[in-house]
Amino acid sequence: MTRATPTPEDKLAELGLTVPEVVPPLAAYQPAARTGNLVFTAGQLPARDGAMLATGKLGDAVTEEQGYECARQCALNALAAIKAEIGELSQIKRVVKAVVFVASTPDFTAQPKVANGASELLGEVFGEAGKHARSAVGVASLPLDVPVEVELVVELVEN
Which pLDDT does position 82 carry in this prediction? Predict the structure, then answer.
């Protein structure tokens, strides 16, 4: 007897992760919006268990390693927003796009390395379907002084 293909939730469990509760919006928006077979997330912050993983800027108070971990948590929070919208992460056909905002000093140029925290998590969870287009953008500041914010766009399987 062959084992069924592991779900994204199974793959997260193998990584020692679970899909968290959706982080409540900080303003007038919803965490995810669906149109047709696409789901767009709002920008997700690096919140875990009700607290931000870090505050400050890359190139100053926040290390690349901390930024990478923040991006990973942001992606996990984006998956939570998507799951709340669609029910099961197995409904994701592929990750289409990730946008990673990195609050950084003017001389910091390793935004892509920080963004890999999100991209590599998506690859671990979705395999080939996790490969996506991406922008890694340095910005002056982000809400609540967090160092990283991530948005995702995913395509859903057709029902």
Answer: 98
Mean pLDDT to the nearest integer, 7-20: 93
In the numeric block, which tokens belong to residue 28?
A: 């007038």
The answer to whether 115 touches 71, Cβ cutoff 8 Å, is yes
Stretch (H or E) spanning 83: helix 64-86
pLDDT at 95: 98
Pick the CATH number of 33-156 from 1.20.120.140, 3.30.1330.40, 3.30.70.890, 3.20.20.70: 3.30.1330.40
64-86 and 111-126 are packed helices; what angle lies between their axes, rounded to 10 degrees? 40
Q: For residue 28, with 0-12 CB atoms within 10 Å meaning exposed, 13-18 middle and 19 or more buried, which class applies?
A: exposed
CB 12 within 8 A of CB 74: no
Cα–Cα nearest to 153, from 42, 53, 30, 58 = 42
